[in-house]
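Subject: sequence -> structure tokens, single chain

Hey, anyone have a minute? Need the predicted structure for the following. Not urgent.
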Amino acid sequence: MANILVVDDEPILAKNIAEAMRLGGHDAVVVGTGEDCLAAAQANPPDVVLLDLRLPGIDGIDVLRELQRRETSASVIMMTAHGNVDSAVEAMKLGAGDFLTKPLDLKELQLVVERVLKHRMVTANLNYFRNRERAEGAFADIIGESPAMATVKRFVERLIATPALASDQPPSVLITGETGTGKDLIARALHYSGARSAGPFVHVNCTALPEHLVEAELFGHVKGAFTDARSDKRGLFETANGGTIFLDEIGHMKLSLQAKLLNAIESRTIRPVGGTSDRKINLHVIAATNRDLEEAIEAREFREDLYHRLRVLTIQLPALRERGDDLFALAGHFLKIHSARFAIPMDGFADDALEAMRAYDWPGNVRELLHSIESAVLMADSPLIRRENLNIIPSNKQGGMAIDMPRANESIVVDFDGEGPKLDDIEYRIISAALEHSGHNLSRAARILGISRDAVRYRLAKYREAKGLEGA
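Reply:
Had a minute. Here:
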């Protein structure tokens, strides 16, 4: 149900319009002058104003202009028996939602009002989500004062302040870090606190794109490009034009698409699937990955040229276990959020809960902490979160483990508390065992290990060089 203000100096017509609005389930108030319209809108802000163009005193155009000056949220539909193109154009320029000529068809008027109300609802929802996303992406939401996070925040502040991000070819940013370290938060902070905040922010999960439609999703397609292409469709790159595109989990993008992505970033143009001409784009590219891209390059699963194009500016996010007391600052922040969200008053954490959080490694990092606190708020039976509410098991295992390699007639003993072999040592011994088993056939050893010949060669040479061993 909407609040509708009918403004017309013809009493019978105004009454009929108001009655038609009431039959449509809305509240309707009638006034006969522009001055009364402004007073009524001030006293009880309407959702829609049905405004006659010619009124005694100030006319409809002046009323519309004054409503816009007051920044009212009302949608205005102009009505007149003396319409012309100039007045219609002026009304539309001033923000009128529609322009109808008399005599009015009341059924048509109802349809126009419903369309305007639907547009208002869609706009309100869009503004809500935009404002929420903007608030969640504020630089102030980056919590943490540990040395590692202080370095990250200083770097982000410098990037936000640089005018380079607003240029036609802003430098790409690569954000790296383990799963759950907050890569998407940093990307949003760069966008919503930076020079492109008024533009769109398009988040692309590269692992969620359907494999057979990845190119069409990113760059769009023209009608008839493939079986289901029944109309032209803009891709995500074109949707992000003027703003930022965030390529999350870029390390898992198919190799076949990486060349096209590289071309789009370098040339600042895209070509829709099935299209014959390029389209210019102006956007900021931010990519993120939890994968070691240098290792992916060695394994020939990621293009080296794309890697260097993306890492013009690099932000390495620390794991939560490396952030010291940031853990407790984040836990307290999440406790406030979920306590308010579920309307469950909470006072804080018991000592055993703090000890458990400190002892835990948090392999899922900040995201895991967030969900753990959410669950704890719901499960707690007192105002204090206790160890059992967190549902985490701190690692307290001691000793080590043995990895048997029967074909190599040896075992690798890993002593986590002592001076056991490092990861590079274990890798070297496994590669050496695979070579021994394959009769020093490099190709066969590579197939056994599931990596390329070049990767085997590179890792052996790297280890031998680090240890000062002879041999290639």
